[in-house]
Amino acid sequence: MILKTKSKVTIVGAGNVGSHAAVCTVSTGLADVVLLDQNVDLAKGKALDITQSMSLSEFDNVVIGTGDYKETANSDVVIVTAGVARKPGMSRDDLLDINATIIESVVNQAVKYSPECILIIVTNPINTMVQLAYEVSGLPKNQVIGMAGVLDSSRFKMFIAQELQIGSSQVETMVLGDHGALMVPLVDHCTVKGKPIRNLLEESTIDKIVNKVQHGGSEIVKLMKHSSAYYAPGISVVEMVKAILNDSHKMLPCAVLLEGEYEIDDLYVGIPAKLGKKGVEEIVEISLSGKESNAFLESVKHIRKRTEALLERRRRRQLSLSV
After folding, report:
1. Taking the model in full, what pTM does it have?
2. Which of 45, 147, 204, 280 has the greatest number of beta carbons closer than 10 A?
3. Which one of 179, 189, 215, 302 is the catalytic residue?
4. pLDDT tens figures, 159-172
């Protein structure tokens, strides 16, 4: 059994995103990790490799590979990366139904053994998958979160830094809405050393950067052909785990359930939220310009249409099974 040193994190899915998240979690001393996959040998092999690498670290955290949910019991955080990844020409929405089936199965099992966990969904399309996970899990809304905004904001930050030939740490960015082509990089809230980005770059250049952010994942899929991004998603989800386990109350953009905030009801949408040991501790409402607000509402409309269609199909299927 895994030795619980600091905290326990389960990662469901031993693919590229899950295994990189495991590396980031143990190599920073955050927690011990259970890496679970239906391909048990893959999970065990990667866990063994990662744990052996820890002998060169100052931390003694370990990774256990398994296919048995019993070994995930009493996890503080459960990260779900399991699902089908995009291939060239596919949108995140193309993964909807097949990944929904995976999410239902995974969440049921994970929550059975860790009923107090914070659940973080990474599987695409994230906003809809996290809403499904919320319905399936029965957990309070503060304990079910989607990862996307941290990743999208980091891409926004990097593209700006590259354009200005400066370090990314000097750039502050925020991306709201859906994790897809309709995501909303907040140009009016973007600053470099406190200066508005519009004071430093031409509008045409900013527009090109926004477009690159919105299609950043697709560019990587096209280049890699048989895989999607995993280094940036892996470290992005661990940034959320860090805020939760360290109870840092850090504000990060993530998909959370809105119930009146931003005048949106009963929908998981990417917005800034403070994360701590209870999961979502506070939803942060920021003022949006007219252009940002219109783009945000379009993004929300897309999320709602996709999510309601999936949930309606699920309800009909459940009804047919009960007859």
Report:
1. 0.93
2. 147
3. 179
4. 999 999 999 999 99
